Amino acid sequence: MSVQVYVAGKLVPKEEAVVSVFDHGLLYGDGVFEGIRIYGGKVFLEQEHIDRLYESARAIRLDVPLTPKDMIQAVRDTVAANGIENGYVRLVITRGAGTLGIDPQRTSNPQVIIIADTISLYPQELYDNGLALVTASTIRNHSGALSPRIKSLNYLNNIMAKLEGKDAGTMEALMLNHNGEVAECTGDNIFIVKNGVLKTPPPEAGILEGITRNAVMKLAVEAGVEVRESTMVRHDIYTADECFLTGTAAEVIAVVSLDGRVIGDGKPGPVTKDLLERFRALTQG
Ligand code: PMP
Questions:
Q1: Lining residues, ligand 1, CB within 6 Å
Q2: CB–CB of 242/236 below 8 Å?
Q3: In this predicted model, what pLDDT tens digit does every residue of 85-119 receive, in sequence order?
Q4: 136 C-alpha to ligand 1 centroid (Å)
Q5: In 3-state terms, what secondary structure has residue 42?
Q6: Domain count within the chain
Q7: What is the pTM of this model?
Q8: Chosen domain end from 92, 117, 142
């Protein structure tokens, strides 16, 4: 069975799933998106992703051509049409085709694109032993310029930092904000554990407020762990007992070094392992 992609209001074989070269999503990165996991054939944290999608759209003054209810149905239909049991959905909304100028008022027909696929994960070895990170010199977008809370189609900020990580031989890179505080990684949120307290930067630090981040914070509270959103600098990570990342693709993955400093005892820590287990249980729920 060929892969079916939702575009222009219907499911079509992927070879026929096309948008205009005049679409401002392509020309200017003018649009928003979501990445969502499918576990056991079900859309994981569906409402949370739909809410964030519509919030991102609202923030860039993009009118989504479907109601949230119809969007949810379109996502479910796309997953079912492709028989995806465990996989990933990419949901994209573009501004639509327009002129070659940036003016969004000269575009029409915002496009909703839904792709359901399998997912490529970090290698198991990294879950067992943890990731190394470096700090990128590329800072996270200043929220006064473009709020990192918008999951927009313009990911160049993160892409530049990702390349720095790859240059250094790491699969992720830490991004600071314009104040030199810890923000997040290029596609994942960051947490530390210090003296039994779980800490993560607040949304005001200039982060994408991850759905996985929020789910893990809830799980930690349920597990009786004290959770704080707090401003942090790299020193806090260098001297943490544990560190881990969260993301739709990554789930929960330990970080064992940053900029050549070993974190804790250099192995995935007990709180990290417990939260990964709890998170996996949630995905199977
Ligand atoms: N930060 C950034 C910059 C991201 O792109 C993502 C999503 N890949 C995350 C954090 C994690 O967010 P979520 O848990 O919603 O996937």
A1: 35, 158, 184, 187-189, 208, 210-213, 246-248
A2: no
A3: 999 999 999 999 999 999 999 999 999 999 999 99
A4: 17
A5: strand
A6: 2
A7: 0.97
A8: 117
Q: Which pair of structure tokens corresponds to residue 249?
A: 């693709």
Domain boundary among 117, 137, 159: 117
Residue with token string 């006064």: 144
The token pair at 42 is: 């079900």
State which residues form the domain around 180. Answer: 124-283
Same domain, 106 and 164: no
41 lies in the same domain as 90: yes
pLDDT at 121 over 90: no
Q: Quickly list DSSP for 90-147.
A: EEEEE--EE-SSS-GGGEE---EEEEEE------HHHHHH-EEEEE-SSPPPPTTTS-
For residue range 217-275, list pLDDT tens digits in order. Answer: 999 999 999 999 999 999 999 999 999 999 999 999 999 999 999 999 999 999 999 99
Kindly name the residue from 10, 42, 69, 151 that is annotated as catalytic: 151
Whether residues 142 and 203 fall in one domain: yes
- Kindly state whether residues 151 and 79 are assigned to the same domain: no
Is there a catalytic annotation at residue 10? no
